[in-house]
Amino acid sequence: MINKRIVFYFLTIIAMSCQEKVKEEAVSEIKLPYYNEATFTPHWFDDLASVPGGFHQIPEFSLVNQQGQEFTDSDVEDKLFVVDFFFTSCPGICPKMTSNMALVQEAFLEDKDVLLLSHSVTPEYDDVEMLRRYAEQKGVIDSKWHLLTGERDVIYDLGRNHYFVEEDLGVQKDLDDFLHTENFILVDKHRYIRGIYNGLNKTSVNQLIADIKTLQKMGA
Fold first, then answer.
1. Average pLDDT estimate for 181-192
2. In CATH, which of 3.30.460.10, 3.40.30.10, 3.40.50.9100, 3.40.50.1820 is domain 32-218?
3. Structural contact between residues 67 and 152, judged by C-beta atoms closer than 8 angstroms
4. Which secondary structure element, helix H or strand E, spans residue 193, and what is its range?
5. What does the domain layout of the chain look like in residue ranges?
6. Is residue 65 within 8 Å of residue 71, measured between CB atoms?
7. What distance lies between CA 43 and its chain's CA centroid?
């Protein structure tokens, strides 16, 4: 007669194996949407080849980082990158955003495929020297996290018209209107926007970290 304990043991192993397979399949099916405009309405595509021509991508740009080096779109080629907008003299939301961006830096410290880009919205004040000083104070790793300055109109155009970081839709803005937002934006290796996150909320930032890992698994 077959020992009931042995049968139970093998049935348990089979059940556990099935559960693990289901979990693996569930993880492999996780996908992130693409975003095309400021409402952040999600668009779902099976793969990169399914993304229609003309779908929104971050354009070419040229700025300067805290090391005084030119930083352009070529520097994020084949990289996943996280974007925010701040200013070094900000007494409000920026210190908290910087602390949370530091969590992302720590999570991908040894990963050369992930970069962080923080754009100053007061570039007339935040020159290279100021950004370098801020980077030293905040523990910014130069090769991982780029604090960017440059022409004000270029930075504001990127923030409002290409990263869509502001949430006050329908409100007409010009260059004199100050750009101030807590949002973090996730961009994939093909310069498609794949997520928006509250940079003041650690739960949202943890989701950002998880989504970066998802994109890496997808090869996006």
1. 97
2. 3.40.30.10
3. no
4. strand 193-198
5. 1-30, 32-218
6. yes
7. 17
